[in-house]
Design goal:
Length: 888
């Protein structure tokens, strides 16, 4: 089973293996939202325990109940070069699934990492910090059009420094960063570091840590030289001197070696990766893509070599936990995968470094821990004469984030055909899926259950019974309970009615439930075809609840649920007979109509879609790759199970006698259900990223205002007055929502902003560059107006480019000391503030305070003039300083 924490910004289709899923909780609406759901896909989110009675693995909170890996740790050191020079190295190590943002993160997005040298006097930076590895580029709906630069695992920044002659003391450093998990939660980092002098040897070793470790093991501890018979490692402790690796809070120990460490062009080698789980745990069989319930290998840099599939010494154990569900493939105890490597005759001599990623999950027979990931690297020397004897190069491991690792595995095709282990034929693709991890498409490979086999028929029967039971349990889910209470009120109002009418009303209610399930079944069937997946924009067969990963659906649901809560609380009335009672006791007892019953069934089912319960995970997993008939039958069974209690009461009206008689308590219950729906709204609110929560909240207020306008005109008024009230309410709610998102939208980044850095500023000033600095903060509304109206505009961007100026954004959201010091230097303690350093007069900046216009900014830039010795767009070289002196 897999509980994968993925970036909400890039959500992927989640496939079902042996895991049983549950979806996120929440609520939804009437026919309008059902029509919306018909064009939006659904997806299962996580898993739920089936219980050990089925012999089925369950997902426990495991490590999620403990403290998570520390988000980020920082360390620093420096090396001395000559008497007065040196290199300062700052290292950040992120916990699993954590990342920080780069120092070059473009302005207008997340907080970039800032590193400052704060002491002692006489020690200063002699250049900018440069990262050892480029950041991973991502995108976000919170900052449309903006590149998000993220660092995972471990990253080092280096910068040249100047120091007093003979200085070997400690250097003080401050680091400000934002560490975020892939699920969106963030923790600010503000750390003070002390960098001590490191020896040259230790510095070199530290530099090489990310690529490989130059270590060997004795010849007798390895398999054999390339080209000889290969003995696959199957057990035993790591060789003496061979390092081991564990992720934080992991139960799996990892080791690795590359045999041989040196090889000539035309030779072959083997990369061996060994997993040793703690007692009672096992790991899944290998995969070379992002298949779930597998150990996922991906080589990100083959260094020009050819590589084959990871092969274990023996096939994995294959176990089917429930009829009809795909079996799982796993290895008990220690397991070593061997990846064959071919070095072509044309390979140039030198050191080649192989880098890769690996995602894994440790499980027992009944539960699984949180998935982990690691990255690894190992060098191999290609030489003409490798010498005698065989040595192994040790593989270096570091923590990596699980979500991005799986994304990379999905996108990277790294296995070369025909590369095999010596003396062992490589399984054909598809035939060896259980051993080598080649993914088999369940939609393409499944033969359904139409063959008439006894086992298949029995499996379908069991699944249908589970579907009915799962649908019945849905009525007890928190998402549905408010509407169940509403249905109970309608039963009370039906007491004494004609039996045939009661049955007809509940059949209408059941039909409303089934319509939604039939629509979902139709989408699932369409998504089994390639054209259907392309039309729907999904990668695989659609599953229960997938529509909640789309902003448009989540936003519609939360608005409608909030409007229904307001109706329950008496702010307005839904114009459907018997859907929700009116404000008076007499209106509460109004009889339910067929339309009210039908739409109530629709509403109940849509409200249930973000919830799941025991048994339904296996049921939906069974639909993968099955025929249209089976999919339709299973979804219908779930709907009938959900409607079963109401059909029973309709068939046996005397059961209504056990309910209380109509009275004032119904009004109290209705209002209580309204507060329960408000709780659902709060839960749905957590589905939105931080950047969307303010406009979503403002939109809810707009709906509140719109419902209030509708409620001012009671249902007994004339049609024209009611239509006017509805038109006014809808227009008001839509206008407020539009305004909310328009005000929160960042818009495209027109000007090439650099994050503020005092070292960079001083460098630009010394070069004679004109520099514009916008001192701003997210909590400063005037700053945001300046940015939209006068700074991040086409006119300002054209002027900045024409002058050869540099634009810097000083984000004071977290009130950093460096920006505060610069503000005081400019004679201000507040923002907004715009400072422009002329290229020909950098010691006398032009300062604009408070609200500025487009004309103010352009006039100040013209006054500052172009950068000194800047080549203008027409090719003429301008000397701003000489022009200024001449004008004087």
């Amino acid at each position: 089973m897999v509980f994968r924490l993925r970036d909400p910004q890039i959500s992927k289709e989640t496939k079902m293996n042996v895991e049983v899923r549950r979806t996120l909780g929440g609520g939804t609406s009437v026919l309008g939202l059902i029509l919306l759901s018909l064009v939006m896909p659904m997806s299962a989110r996580a898993q739920i325990d089936l219980g050990s009675d089925f012999g089925f693995p369950s997902l426990t909170l495991g490590e999620l109940g403990d403290d998570l890996d520390q988000e980020a740790t920082f360390s620093a050191s420096y090396t001395a070069e000559g008497d007065t020079a040196g290199t300062l190295v700052v290292t950040a190590r992120m916990g699993s699934d954590w990342h920080i943002y780069s120092m070059t993160q473009p302005a207008g997005g997340p907080t970039p990492t800032r590193i400052r040298l704060t002491g002692p006097a006489g020690v200063a930076l002699d250049g900018a910090f440069v990262a050892d590895e480029p950041p991973k580029i991502a995108s976000s709906s919170a900052w449309p059009g903006l590149k998000i630069e993220e660092h995972y695992g471990e990253i080092r920044w280096r910068a040249p420094i100047r120091r007093p002659a003979g200085f070997t003391g400690e250097i003080e450093i401050s680091v400000v960063a934002l560490a975020c998990m892939t699920d969106g939660s963030c923790v600010p980092q503000n750390q003070k570091l002390t960098a001590a002098l490191a020896s040259d040897a230790s510095a070199v070793a530290d530099t090489a840590a990310d690529s490989a470790v130059a270590a060997t093991t004795p010849a007798e501890s390895t398999a054999a030289a390339a080209g000889a018979d290969v003995t696959l490692v199957t057990g035993g402790d790591p060789a003496d001197g061979e390092p081991t690796f564990r992720n934080a809070k992991s139960v799996v120990q990892w080791t690795g070696r590359l045999i041989p460490a040196k090889a000539r062009p035309g030779d072959s080698a083997i990369l061996q990766i060994t997993a040793k789980p703690d007692k009672g745990f096992h790991v899944y069989a290998a995969a070379i893509d992002d298949s779930e319930s597998r150990t996922n290998f991906v080589i990100t840099d083959k260094a020009g070599l050819r590589m084959g599939m990871p092969v274990p010494p023996s096939p994995p154990i294959v176990k089917e936990f429930l009829p009809g569900l795909p079996p799982i493939h796993y290895h008990e105890g220690e397991i070593t995968w061997s990846i064959p490597i071919e070095i072509s005759d044309a390979t140039a001599e030198g050191t080649k470094t192989i880098r890769g990623l690996l995602g894994y999950q440790a499980c027992t027979d009944t539960s699984c821990l949180q998935p982990k990931a690691l990255k690894f690297a190992v060098p191999i020397e290609v030489v003409k004469d490798p010498g005698e004897g065989t040595t192994a190069q040790v593989v270096r491991f570091l923590t990596a984030p699980f979500g991005p690792t799986m994304d990379t595995a999905a996108e990277t095709k790294w296995v070369d055909e025909g590369v095999e282990l010596p003396g062992q034929a490589q399984p054909a693709a598809g035939a060896g899926a259980a051993t080598t991890g080649v993914r088999s498409d369940p939609i393409a490979a499944s033969d359904g259950v139409s063959e008439g086999r006894v086992v298949a028929d029995l499996s379908l029967l069991v699944i249908l019974l589970m579907a009915v039971a799962g649908g019945l349990i849905l009525n007890l889910m928190p998402c549905v309970l408010p509407v169940v209470g509403l249905k109970i009120m309608s039963f009370v109002s039906q007491a004494g009615e004609d039996r045939r009418k009661v049955l007809a009303l509940n059949v209408a209610y059941t039909l409303g439930i089934l319509v939604v399930f039939w629509a979902l079944a139709a989408l699932a069937i369409v998504s089994t075809y390639s054209w259907g997946r392309e039309w729907l924009g999904v990668e695989g067969q659609m599953s229960w609840g997938q529509q909640f990963q789309y902003f448009g659906f989540r936003f519609s649901v939360i608005l409608v649920v909030f409007a229904l809560a307001l109706s329950f609380l008496g702010v307005w009335e839904i114009p459907l007979p018997g859907f929700v009672g009116g404000k008076s006791t007499q209106e509460l007892q109004k009889k339910e109509g067929f339309s009210g019953a039908f739409f109530k069934g629709i509403f109940t089912t849509v409200l249930a879609t973000p919830c799941s319960g025991p048994l339904l995970g296996a049921v939906f997993g069974f639909t993968l790759g099955k025929s249209a008939f089976v999919i339709f039958a299973i979804f219908s069974a779930i709907g009938l199970g959900m409607a079963l209690p109401y059909l029973l009461i309709a068939l046996f009206p005397p059961l209504i006698a056990f309910l209380p008689k109509p009275g004032e308590w119904m009004d109290v219950l209705k209002q209580l259900l309204g507060f329960l729906l408000l709780g659902t709204v709060v839960y749905l609110f957590t589905f939105f990223p931080d950047a969307d929560r303010v406009p979503v909240f403002m939109s809810l207020i707009g709906v509140w205002f719109g419902c209030w306008l509708v409620g001012l005109v009671p249902n007994w008024q004339t049609l024209s007055k009611r239509l006017t009230a509805w038109a006014s309410g809808i227009a008001a709610a839509a206008s407020i929502a539009y305004l909310a998102f328009w005000l929160s939208a960042t818009g495209p980044v027109v000007v090439a902003w650099e994050p503020y850095d005092v070292v960079r500023l001083n460098q630009l000033r010394s070069e004679g560059r004109t520099v514009l600095i916008d001192f701003t903060a997210k909590w400063c509304p005037t700053c945001q107006i300046n940015y939209r109206v006068a700074l991040n505009t086409e006119a300002t961007g054209d002027m900045v480019r024409e002058l050869g100026a540099v634009a810097m954004l000083a984000d004071w959201t977290d009130q950093g000391d460096d920006i505060h010091a610069k503000l005081q230097e400019l004679g201000s303690s507040s923002i907004p503030l715009l400072a422009i350093y002329p290229g020909n007069d950098p010691d006398n900046p032009i300062v604009l305070r408070d609200l500025v216009s487009q004309g103010d900014v352009l006039m100040a830039l013209r006054q500052a003039g172009p950068s000194v010795m800047f080549d203008s767009p027409d090719g003429r070289e301008t000397v701003a300083g000489l022009a200024a002196e001449t004008s004087r």
